[in-house]
Amino acid sequence: MRKVFVETYGCQMNEYDTELVKAILAEARYGFTKDELEADVVMLNTCAIREHAHRKIYGRIHDIKYRRSQKHNIAVKDDPVKFGILGCMATNLRTELLENRNLDIDFIAGPDSYKRLPQLISESFGEGAKGFDLTLSEFETYSDIYPRREDGINAWIAVMRGCNNFCTFCVVPYTRGRERSRSLENVVDEARRLADDGFKQITLLGQNVNSYKHEEHDFADLMAAVAQVKGIERVRFTSPHPKDFPDKFLDVMAEYPNICKQIHLPLQSGNDRILELMNRTYTQDEFLKLVDKIRHKIPNISFSTDVIVGFCSETDDEHRDTYEVMKQVEFDSAFIFKYSERKQTIASRKMKDDIPDAIKTERIVELNELQKDISLKKNQEHIGRIEAVIIESLEASKTKDAYFGKADSNKTVIIRKQGETGLEVGDIVHVHIEDASPNVLRGAIK
Ligand code: 5AD
Ligand code: SF4
To answer: What is the pTM of this model?
Structure first.
């Protein structure tokens, strides 16, 4: 039996796709190994969203090839191992990957071609041309495959794939193609099976998850249906676009106690001219009104966001607008990125990446400092409360004297041990929050 090693980069969708790939290969009678030096097939499931991703991958391939040759005492070119590139970089850099002789990749498969992997791999062991399949599909949702999941608490379900928004900075529409959704019944069946398999939490996943639409069902219908599955104690979703938050959906979120009161709401910029250049389809005012509406309907909601600094032609004053919006909204946490030009995107074709790196750095530092203070303040608001926490590990990373868990808000909670017995991973406990830092809450079981 041939042994496969897979390493995953990038977003949750890629993690999920690796689980799909493992299911497809297991069905084709491949085995798996966690040791890249012992594998017969090495696959990297890659990301293309931001800078340096490809350089990291090239470096990693050379590193694995070199260490294998040392370990097995053979020349790199005589190693019978096959190397494959999967994921977004495969579609984004197809020509470069195929023509780079230095890398010597044996097969390449884009995000819609994973069912062809057994064939591509077996062809790569034969003589002749390299196998690649980068076609993007309007239909492939992998709804007939039950992924090989490893995490025991949370299970991801990709309910839609692809993106039709064409934000001008973003490569996803090109690497992952058009939006398509699975049927509601099919997703609910999978949720039931996951509950039977002991999963406590389900996270519905999609590049634009709240654009989910299948026949007469929208995302609100889907969330309500999944929340009703017996045994599922928490339902989450990621990543949504601010354009698709109808009242109907917010009402469903408010109504079901097992839908976590947490929304990742990507702002990207707080300035109207930049938002328009990014093709985000909302203004600063519309974003702020949406936040107010959500807080009104779901008072205990917690927000995270994504922000890009230094987008093409962004002035200091325009950057200041982003700062002010973040200050006003007070997100619980924020992921802040420097703009990096991606091949194929509208921005790379029609705009100039003209903000010097030093300025991008200044802007990112400034927003990170602001966010750190806000995150601390938001976390301190939890002190004194009793929160339901799902235990994810019986030992926190820095100490054995604490459990590690997640609150409904998805905040990390470090739970001081008090001699409890019989607690298991996946249990939900009630924790009295005693202390907070910008990144974690601390407390003890009530
Ligand atoms: N440059 C920088 N950040 C980007 N993102 C997406 N594309 C780019 C890019 N070209 C960020 C966005 C998105 C998150 C997943 O990655 O903030 O929400
Ligand atoms: Fe995920 Fe986007 Fe990276 Fe692809 S490019 S792996 S969709 S973050």
So the answer is: 0.95
